[in-house]
Amino acid sequence: MVRKQAIEVIGINEIPEFWNVLTEDQKAYLQANITLQHYKKNELIHKEGGEPTHMMILVRGKVKIYKSGVGGRSQIMRMLKPYEYFGYRAIFAHGNFHGYNTNARAFESCSIYKIPATVITDLLQQNAKLAFSFVQRLAADLGASDARMVNLTQKHIRGRLAETLLFLKESYGLEADGATINIYLAREDIANLSNMNTSNAIRTLSTFATEGIIAVDGRKIKIIDEERLHKISRLG
Amino acid sequence: MVRKQAIEVIGINEIPEFWNVLTEDQKAYLQANITLQHYKKNELIHKEGGEPTHMMILVRGKVKIYKSGVGGRSQIMRMLKPYEYFGYRAIFAHGNFHGYNTNARAFESCSIYKIPATVITDLLQQNAKLAFSFVQRLAADLGASDARMVNLTQKHIRGRLAETLLFLKESYGLEADGATINIYLAREDIANLSNMNTSNAIRTLSTFATEGIIAVDGRKIKIIDEERLHKISRLG
DNA sequence: TAAAAAAAATGTTTTTCAGCATACTTTATA
DNA sequence: TATAAAGTATGCTGAAAAACATTTTTTTTA
Questions:
Q1: Chain A residues with CB inside 8 Å of B23's CB?
Q2: Tens digit of pLDDT for each residue in A180-214?
Q3: N or C: where does chain B have the smaller number of CB atoms within 10 Å of the terminal CB?
Q4: Which pLDDT does position A9 carry in this prediction?
Q5: What is the DSSP letter of B68?
Q6: Cβ contact, residue pair A135, B140, below 8 Å
Q7: How far A103 CA lies from chain B's nearest CA (Å)?
């Protein structure tokens, strides 16, 4: 069983951004220090406020990155899919924002490569190409974060929910039917992605369904009229 | 007059992060390509949606970085002070978030060093130490952006305004009296920093003044009871 | 499979905040 | 300096969304 899992997940050398730019020595160094770890559904991977020990690469499953805000109310910052990496921001920031600012939780059963903080820091300082690829990644993340800020603060509930549904579609894609979003989230998670409370997520999803924009079957959400979702998202 | 301005501003070699890690060749390359430009009060420095041509280092004056959101409503993302640099995120991000996502405007008369995008990209790819310092900077920026997200989305008006006042104090410091925040902003800018409309910024500032938390004299804001501001900010 | 727990649905109430109108004050400009 | 324009102050109203309560449905677990 352990063997089977090991076969299921991809190797680190299949992630070109990490692998191709390294020298032979650096590859050996990375191989010697990387570990694969499994997390059960809903298991906490890292905790807000904690000291970052590893950078992680998700290779199987889905992860949510979220912050606990006012009165413990949680705000999902990002949702990850395989081949995406995380936990590196906390390692590299110095000053106020060193350390995990977020919680990471396995949304379903996950396999994750873990690279010790010291190892990834060494590699970045030795290898300008690798460092540059992290610059590119962080620059894109920051752009996304700023864009999301305006979405969440300025749009009304319908606009925020439409945005979230489109985001989920972009991130996780559609099932074989070409319409059902390929992730099943609790209404509460949809709410936490959209900066609203659960009641309003439920209510607004129902309204969208009534209006024929989506079809809802339990946690399955089918996008019927994507154009309208875009329109609702644009108008706020 | 031109001579005088040139003397007033610091040299690029006084910014260690840029200078100390460069080789002699790289220093020469940078020196040969860097230019100093002056902007008048309220002048636009770069525009949302535009192609990034330069990375910039503010050496005199204050700059606001803002996004135009739903219905043109503007949201100030950051406020800069001398020695801070900007415009680099747009250069390095690839994919969706390449290009300026924000506007930058001289909040008062400014002097700015401009490094062509190609030059800074060359330097980063050649110099792992420089690239790593950008990784650190971007990681901190992203942490700040995520923290701000929760502030702006979850806190109530009083909490958001308190947060903004404390942020301004941290960023720009206090005047000789040890209480007056060393930046004079229009109520509209305070509102755009705090995700609220101008009326509510005015109203809430008045309330804070009535409660003896701050004292307001035109655009001068004096912090009387910082502890209460922290408390209001924490509670949302 | 039954019982318990969690999640979803829905209606009602309350709070927060945006939008607007108006008056007053300060700043810019002819 | 007069006039216009911009910015500030304040009250009122209504829309949006949170909070709460209750019922129904689904999922988990014993």
A1: none
A2: 999 999 999 999 999 999 999 999 999 999 999 99
A3: N
A4: 64
A5: E
A6: no
A7: 12
